[in-house]
Amino acid sequence: MLEIKNLHVSAGGQEILRGVDLVVNAGEVHAIMGPNGSGKSTLSYVLAGRPGYEITGGSIHYFGEDLTTLQPEMRAAKGIFLGFQYPVEIPGVATMTFLKHAINAQRKTRGEDELDAMGVMKLVQREAGKLKISADMLKRPVNTGFSGGEKKRCEILQMAVLQPLLAVLDETDSGLDVDALRLVGDGISGLRAPDRAMIVITHYQRLLDHIVPDFVHVLAKGKITRSGGRELALELDREGYGETAPQTRITAGA
Amino acid sequence: MRHYAKTGLPTRKQEAWRWTDLTPLYDHLGKPSAPAPSTASPLAGPFAAIDCWRLTFINGVLQNSSADLPAGVRAISLRAALNEDASLAANLSAGEGAAFLSLNTALLNDGAFIHLAPDVRLLKPLHLVFFNTGNAQIRNLVMLAPRAAMTLLESHYGAPDANYFVNQASDVHMAEGARLSHYRDQAESPNALHFQYLNARLEAHCAYDGFTLTRGARLSRYEAHIAINGAETDCSLNGVTMLDGAQLSDTTCVMAHLAPASRSSQMFRNVLAGQSQGVFQGLIRVAKAAQRTDARQQIKALLLSPKAVQNAKPELEILADDVKCAHGASAGQLDEAALFYLRARGINEAQARALLIAAFLDDAVAQIRGGNGVDAAEIRNPLQAAIGAWLARQLAVTHV
Fold it and tell me: Exposure string (b/e) for B146-166, b if CB count within 10 Å is 16 or more?
């Protein structure tokens, strides 16, 4: 599904990714762990197509297609979903309205019929219930005044209604207490499917108790330095990143 | 005319006009008005579908009468009213020192005279429709007796290819406890010059709720002078301005608090495309007697192109010591992080921009309070539709 080869990426004149290789197949869950500043978020932004990141080398192919030339909205319509570490507040746009726009924009791009207001409402309410998101919250402007936990639950709601093929979840566990973590973790876990892959970016192993990865990779200083199974996450949790990433500071990106 | 002869037209050397160049006006001076058509083009725009009493003016001349107005309400031509009772002229401000107002006073064609007797409440809006094809000096006089309440709508539009100069002044007198909702749509034809001077005097316990959607005319100025002359009065003055091409629009407000414990709020949102220019000058004046005043003013502009310009000059002049005053002015571009967030969900760039701009402008639209015979939604919804249509054109999207 996704094939990243020797990917080099710069932002603001500074090289952040320095030769990333990664292959993700349908149905797999990959965890990417690593210290702060190792380039984890940059990788997620590059996959989603955020402006401001320059690919200076290597390639990204998604279902065999060069991903790097596609606009973010096109990538979304083709099934790529980015769960933001810091979901953006959009005052003045109600969450339900936003979801309706997003669902129908993707359907339209794919040449599918748009859903009417009732269809959107039913779909959203079904998924919102599982994440304990109230009807009141759906009326509020996108992420505006939401708590950290509400924002992350809302990200997972978006993923649930948009039904992506490749979900890249950037530190979805950050800022969550134990209860919120369980809700979000179970939410993500419930979206595992044979035709859907996930890249779960996290700093800690605790989210991986809820969503057990097939592969764990360590990203350090812009490269994948180790790969392994579930046990690698547990080892990192016990022993830290010390061995794999010497205490060098990389300030740009995050 | 004496005042006008003395002052002449203002130039950019005068502080109150430093950003608004009046050169386009010189072509119009001294030229007679073109013959007026006998009927106006069909009314379009946000207020067209609202159930209300309508008076239509062509180049400032009243075309119809509204016979079914309830008792205690008068809505007739100002000329007719002055013929009946010359003493009404005392309620028209002469315009000393204000060139456009004195020009209007000297040359006025006609306009509306609206009077509500004490305690009269209009159950649906009164709509003044101003259709213009040639130069016009229009004067309105609105007098609300104690506790009278109404919604006054104004639509300003013209023949699409007409090149004209409209100079309109309105004197609004609100006696104690009167309530006025005053919503305007300025959609003059693209070559027009539109000047609007509002002179309002509010006594105690009044509520004035004003909103202007500015989208028409090559050059326009909305100048509001509001004197809050009584205690416990609420004055809200808001607007959205959408400009493109070489349009220039100037909003100049003087909010004078002359009595204690009154509140005023102003919220303006501008969106500027092309090489357009927005001007905002806002003075809040709090007299020594106006203790416990609460006055707010905020202007924000979104610049959609590198050549668009917003000038803003918020000013406070406070002589009382127990007051709450806040003002803010900003101009900038769309939030790139928000734009990417929407695009990452599959919403294309143009549509994402349209959504964000509409939300930005909605801050001001949401200030519309309604009441006085009309629901807020009845006014807000069609204004939002007009804003959406402009954005859709601007960004080449199908709907907003």
Answer: bbbbbbbbbbbbbbeebbbbb
Q: Is the CB of residue B341 less than 8 Å away from at least one CB of chain A?
A: yes
Over residues B200-218, the mean pLDDT reads 98
**Cβ neighbours of B352 in A, within 8 Å:** 73
Residue of B nearest to A82 (CA): B344
In chain A, the domains with their CATH numbers are 2-93+165-239 (3.40.50.300)
Q: How far away is chain A from the Cα of B75, in angstroms, using its nearest Cα?
A: 39
In B273-339, at which residue ranges do the beta strands (DSSP E only) sit?
277-286, 294-303, 309-318, 324-332
Between CA A93 and CA B142 the distance in angstroms is 38
The pTM for the full model equals: 0.90
Q: Which residue from B335, B351, B356 is facing A105, i.e. has the nearest CB? A: B351
Place of tokens 């000038």: B311
Residue B308 has pLDDT above 60, yes or no: yes
Tell me what percent of the residues of chain A surpass a pLDDT of 70: 95
What is the C-alpha radius of gyration for chain B, rounded to an integer number of angstroms?
A: 20
Sign of the CA dihedral B359, B364, B365, B371? Answer: positive
**Rounded CA separation A207/B119 (Å):** 66
- Residue B313 burial (CB count, 10 A): 16
Q: What is the pLDDT of residues B108-151, one digit of tens each?
A: 778 999 999 999 999 999 999 999 998 888 999 999 999 999 99
pLDDT confidence of residue B353 = 94
Give the integer Cα–Cα distance in Å for A229 and A66: 28
**Nearest by Cα to A48 from A67, A61, A33:** A67
Q: Give the one of B337, B344, B352 whose C-beta lies nearest to A48's C-beta.
A: B344
Q: Write down the residue that tokens 């009213």 correspond to.
A: B81
A-chain residue closest to B399, CA distance: A101
Instruction: Return the SS3 of B340.
Output: helix
Q: Which residue from B141, B151, B191 is spatially nearest to B47, judged by alpha carbons?
A: B151
| Nearest CA-CA distance, residue A198 and chain B, Å | 16
- Chain B CB contacts of A98 under 8 Å are 342, 345, 355
Burial label for A240, CB within 10 Å (0-12, 13-18, 19+), is exposed
> Highest mean pLDDT: which of A219-223, A249-253, B79-83, B267-271?
B267-271
> CA-CA distances (angstroms) from residue B265 to B41, B301, B368?
36, 17, 12
| pLDDT at residue B253 is higher than 60 | yes
Chain A residues with CB-CB distance to B344 below 8 A: 48-50, 72-73, 75-76, 81-82, 84
Percent of chain A surpassing pLDDT 90? 77
Which residues of chain A are within 8 Å of residue B340 when distances are taken between CB atoms?
A: 50-51, 72, 88
Contacts of A48 in chain B (CB under 8 A): 344
Specify the 3-state DSSP secondary structure of B372.
coil
Handedness of CA A35, A39, A42, A48 (dihedral sign): negative
Paired with B228 in beta bridges are B202, B257
Residue A33 C-alpha, separation from nearest chain B C-alpha, in angstroms: 23
Q: Best residue in A46, A86, A101 to probe B by mutation, most B CBs within 10 Å?
A: A101
